[in-house]
Amino acid sequence: MGKLKKVSATILATSLLAVGSTEVMKLPVASADAQILNVVTTGNTYDAPTQFKSEITSESSLLLSWSYLDAPEYKVTRDGEVIQTIQNSGQETPSFEDTGLTLGNTYTYQVYATNGVELGAAATLEVTFAPIAKPTINTLDPEFNPNRFSWEPIPGATGYNIFRDGFYVGTKLPDEKLIWHEAGIEPDKTYTYSVVALNGVLESEPATVQLTTTLERIEQPANTIATVIGENSIKVSWDQVPYATSYKLYLTGSAANYFESQVISDHEYIFTNLRKGITYTIAVEAKRGDLTSTVSRVVATTEGALIPLPTNLQWQANDQVGVDLSWDAVEGASGYKVYRDTDYVKTVTSPSFHDWGLRSNWTYGYEVSAIQGDIEGPRSNIVAITKLMDEIPIPIPSLKVTGKTYSSVSLSWTEVDGATNYGVYSGGDHSDIIPKNAKLVYYGHDLEAIDTGLIANTEYDYYVYAYKGGSRSEPAKLKVVTAPVEVVIIPEPTPDSGSNGGGAGGSSSGSNASPSGTGVTTPTTITPPDTSSTSTETETETNQQPTLIEPLPMQFKDLSRDHFANVSINRLVSDGTIKGYKDGSFKPNQKVTRAEFISLLVRALKLEDTESYKTTFTDVHSSAWYTNELSIALQIGLIKGYSDNTFRPREGMTREQVASIVSNILVKAGKAGERADLAKFNDELSSSTWAKEGMAIAVSSGIMSGYKDGTLRPKQTVTRAETAVIITRLLDAL
Questions:
Q1: Where is the SLH domain (predicted)?
Q2: Distance (Å, rounded) from C-alpha 485 to C-alpha 408?
């Protein structure tokens, strides 16, 4: 090892020399001026410590740490000057806290392993001891998010503390969404919020914002109780809801769709003048301005019997292997329901009933109940026995088809000597005296009948019986296939001079689209229908069907001429808005998706795009078949996506979503009339709050209507048939 000249700072000098190097050092000496020495070091060396890092511990200090090396001690320098010698105590992670630092400065640190004479390689770390920046606050749209704000991320921040009026209310980490939202605080009050960025123990200056809060959600009324008060009154009460200014009550009775609504400020109410023996459902919702809670429901039944029991029920066997029933009239009854062996048979308006076609010498149980509108009273019952009749063989009639169309079959049969009546059935089980699950087409003494409301190109089984006294013949049987629908091709008109004939239309579910504006209906091949499909209940369409000057011939095998949407469908088919399917069907009851509805609407309104579609939704590919129509709808504000940046094109389009779009169009066109009172619908409460305005406009404008049971069904997905009617009504309203 090289020898040093003896000076008072020998240890300091050698501690700064790296092994194997030649250095010129200026050493301060206590008793003399600094001396210049050439020092050559030799011998073993140490590797540079690894994992050399720093951590801020205060506004003027930081902690340095590094990995363990097998050396007697460590030297730490700051900006080239030794600031600490640390004895190796065997710690796995040696450390040193440097103090007296100044914010805003940059420091260069090095650490060496040394044996007191020889230095190892240095680990170097540059640290900028900078203050953390103040966040920038962004207030969100106050109309929709009055209680929320966000801020921009700060580089190096390890978290953010949030304060309300000087009190700590929460912390956000850098990997979280930097949006603050507080629910449940007092509404209509101004608060001062502060955001402080953190970096270890360092804190930024606070960024502040003032927000005047509104109530975003009002609680559902709790502990709702209904108390029956005699035959005509029900008291309902509930706990007061914080911040509620009023309550809306809905009373729905099981009698004839009875409905009543009230708005009160108290938290209890008595419904009076009710009907006895009726079950009522009471719904309560809390309100504050436009804010409405979810409803709380209770059920209660008023005392007393609603409809008396029919009395003096009697029976008598008749000569047609039947039973004649009679009973005393019930005051106020609008009719009577008759049941045979617990099965419903018929509703009659007079207090008597003639049952026929029964088994000879057979016992039947009958029940009769009185009804008032939709309400049925208790049943009285009796047991009847048919007459014992001689079994007289009756010839089988000869049955034939006299005519058929795509929706009807005409039948005739030969007269049977002595027969008093004939019965014609379609389908069903005929193994017993009384056919089961069969459609009664005709019963009487005529020799011909017509069956209507059939499906085109479909096979039907018919049975004709002859009746004589208490006997019945074996059935004459016949299979009949209804006529196929006639497909009519409308010739393409010759364009006027200078006309270009129009461009190509978009496609929809089903067959390929034909060019729009040409007036051409694409011919289809007719195949037997799928009889396994079931129909669905549709809206009541009384006197609201749009008309054509020249109605098109019906061209779909699953669409009868008297179908409520037939004219609307053919109108949209004729202008290329909607198409059928390759098998000749239209599928009127098939549900419509969001993508399909917006495509049909844009095509029907003849809207054109101004720019190509740019993918904005995570679940819509730029090459999807509906992107052109979606782009147009987005540009003019017909539809929006969801908050998670999705469009959900395959989801069903609900009636309340349709109403919202339709009402938006009517308002923009200045065609929106008075808002309808939705309280007349039994399920008004099931509408989303945001959809009620649109539903009211759509109903008042005649674009949408309810169902026969008095419901609006806002959450139900629209069908292809309903969509066609809604779109044509909208076109007529504009």
A1: 552-615, 616-676, 678-734
A2: 12
pTM, two decimals, is: 0.32
Say which DSSP state 499 is in: -
The top-scoring range by mean pLDDT among 176-190, 278-292, 516-530 is 278-292
Chosen CATH of 137-213 out of 2.60.40.10, 3.90.1150.10, 3.40.50.300, 1.10.10.10: 2.60.40.10
pLDDT digits (tens, 9 = 90+) for 58-113: 888 889 999 999 899 999 999 999 999 999 888 899 999 999 888 878 999 999 99
* Fold of domain 399-481: Immunoglobulin-like (2.60.40)
Both tokens of residue 59?
Answer: 């506004």
Question: Does the domain at residues 53-129 carry the CATH identifier 3.40.1380.10?
Answer: no
Fold of 314-387: Immunoglobulin-like (2.60.40)
- Partner residues linked to 280 by β-bridges: 253, 300
- Whether the per-residue pLDDT at 341 is higher than 90: the answer is no
The highest-level CATH class for domain 225-302 is mainly beta
| pLDDT over 70 (residue 369) | yes
Among the listed ranges 223-237, 346-360, 374-388, which one has the minimum average pLDDT value?
374-388
Query: CA 729 → CA 7, 517, 596, 657, 726, distances in Å?
Result: 107, 20, 18, 17, 5
CA–CA gap between residue 693 and residue 615 (Å, rounded): 31
